[in-house]
From TrEMBL:
Signal peptide annotation: none
One Pfam assignment: FecCD
Membrane topology according to the record: Multi-pass membrane protein
SUPFAM superfamilies (UniProt xref): ABC transporter involved in vitamin B12 uptake, BtuC
GO MF term list: transmembrane transporter activity
Protein name stated in the entry: Iron chelate uptake ABC transporter family permease subunit
Compositional bias segments (type: Polar residues): 94-106
Gene Ontology CC terms, in alphabetical order: plasma membrane
Organism: Candidatus Avisuccinivibrio stercorigallinarum
Region entry Disordered, spans: 90-112
Keyword entries, A-Z: Cell membrane, Membrane, Transmembrane, Transmembrane helix, Transport
Predominant localisation class: membrane
Length: 112
């Protein structure tokens, strides 16, 4: 028998990957955190659906679909880029001023 899952698939795709980014891939450590984060994600989407247009309610599947799509696309880009890829550039300073500027011309790239 085929079951239609709907918005639960987004929860199953997004929440474990987000928890794995912050806690690592050890299943014993992340399983309780994944269950708690999934419940919090559904609760947050339900609160958004109830308070966005106050006298009425939006279906939770709609909110989970919209928020889940944005987070899922962000996770795809995150995984394709290999994690955090922003670069901080700072100039190395040698103890003596070079040509009156106080800093040397070489740069050090820090991958964070």
């Amino acid at each position: 028998m085929t079951a239609v899952v709907g918005a639960v698939s987004y929860i199953g795709l997004i929440v474990p990957n987000l928890v794995a980014i912050f806690k690592g891939d050890n299943l014993r450590r992340t399983l309780p955190d994944t269950a708690l984060a999934g419940a919090c994600f559904v609760l947050l989407c339900d609160l958004i659906g109830r308070s966005l247009i106050y006298p009425y309610e939006l279906p939770i599947e709609l909110i989970i679909g919209i928020v889940g799509t944005v987070i899922f696309i962000a996770l795809i880009f995150y995984r394709l880029n290999g994690g955090l890829t922003f670069k901080l550039r700072r100039k190395k300073s040698s103890g003596t001023p070079a040509s009156g500027s106080g800093q040397s011309g070489s740069e050090e790239v820090i991958h964070a």
